[in-house]
Specification:
The structure is a single chain. This protein is mostly beta strands. It has helices spanning about 5, 105-125, 165-175, 190-195, and strands spanning about 10, 15, 20-25, 30, 35-40, 50-55, 60-65, 65-75, 90-95, 130-140, 200-210, 220-225, 235-240, 245-250, 260, 270-275, 285-290, 305-310. It has one domain (about 25-335). A five-stranded mixed sheet has the order 5-8-15-12-17, with no helix packed on it. The protein has a five-stranded antiparallel sheet with strand order 9-16-11-18-10. The chain has four helices and 18 strands. About 40% of the residues are buried. Strand 2 (about 15) and strand 3 form a beta hairpin.
Length: about 325
């Protein structure tokens, strides 16, 4: 186990460029692992549920309490072989972007979404990918929910974005006439939903630093799915005026194996599953922003973007018990006029 003195030793490490080792473009932490504190959710008492109200008044029937819990953080840059979506549930890729203005939703959708669609395909082996949403985050903000055209704060709690029941319901919502994508355009018809949901599908996030300086404040940590038994999951509800979303929170265990990639640069992207219908591999990657002991008070604000994708698989990628689907929808989905 490294000491705080050891944490101060920075050195050149290996990153991976599309599966091949390259010299890191910035200095990375040379320590293999060290102790940090992550905010784990407190399970609810009887008569209460865990969650929060969003864009509506709090009804007093939820609790949303976290406890900073000491655990071990591992350096993802030292993994050999590197992590993949089919082993740990996450993967770091070098994938440059041509998008310049991440505050411009139209530019993000027209330029960045197609880039991320190809990245998700490459990382997952999916046949079709829809990008349906994105969030820009900045450590100078305090609100977890982004206003229109604005940014949100990083989420400093251990969570996974979907549940075993919430993910299929979220897919079904895209076939509802009242539920739209980020740009307020229809994604799926009811017929599309029935066909696509019969086969294997996965919700996948892509997280990227969007400024020229490496990430130092509130980096993103991800947990190896192989270290998290299903019995550690419990429900966290996001109570919107028009719908209820479901996250998983996590009961703490020292067995959880956490990783982060120190000093991520703009050309790197962290891809991770937040739901996979296929049950015999990684399904739910828990993740959280956290305070790195190496961070200096003068470090610049973290500015990042995360995009949310649905990946569809056909042919040999499907489980034998899943019904294949023809995937007639164009990849561009809601981006088509």
């Amino acid at each position: 186990m490294a000491t705080l003195r050891g944490l101060a030793k920075l050195g050149s490490q290996l990153a991976y460029r599309r599966g091949r080792p390259i010299a890191a473009s910035s200095r990375a932490v040379s320590t293999e692992s060290w102790r940090v504190k992550l905010n784990y959710q407190v399970p609810p008492p009887p008569g209460k549920r865990t969650g929060r109200y969003i864009n509506q008044p709090d009804q007093g029937d939820t609790v949303d309490e976290h406890i900073p819990t000491e655990t071990t953080m591992h350096n993802g840059r030292l993994l050999s072989p590197p992590a993949t979506l089919e082993t740990t549930g996450f993967s770091l890729k070098t994938w440059p972007t041509q998008c310049k203005d991440f505050s411009n939703d139209e530019e993000v959708a027209k330029m960045y979404y197609p880039e991320m669609r190809e990245l998700v395909k490459a990382a997952s082996g999916a046949d079709r990918v829809f990008i349906f949403d994105h969030t820009v985050r900045n450590t100078d903000n305090t609100n977890l929910n982004a206003a229109a055209g604005g940014s949100a704060a990083p989420v400093p709690r251990v969570h996974c974005d979907y549940t075993a029941t919430g993910a299929p319901r979220r897919l079904m919502q895209f076939a509802n006439a009242r539920v739209y994508s980020y740009l307020r355009k229809r994604v799926l018809t009811e017929e599309d939903f029935k066909e696509l949901s019969a086969g294997r599908f996965a919700f996948i996030n892509v997280w990227r630093n969007i400024v020229d300086t490496p990430v130092e404040r509130s980096p993103l940590a991800v947990c190896d799915t192989r270290s998290v038994p299903e019995s550690d999951h419990f429900l966290y509800e996001l109570l919107f005026p028009d719908r209820t979303g479901e996250n998983y929170s996590l009961r703490f265990s020292e067995a959880h194996k956490w990783y982060y990639y120190p000093r991520m640069v703009k050309d790197e992207a962290l891809v991770f599953k937040v739901y996979d219908k296929q049950e015999d591999g990684p399904r739910f990657v828990f993740h959280t922003a956290f305070e790195d002991p190496l961070t200096k008070p003068s470090s610049p604000a973290r500015q990042s973007i995360e995009v949310r994708a649905i990946a569809f698989f056909s042919g040999d990628s499907l489980e034998v018990r899943s019904k294949p689907c023809s995937l007639r929808l164009p990849e561009e989905g809601f981006l088509k006029e």
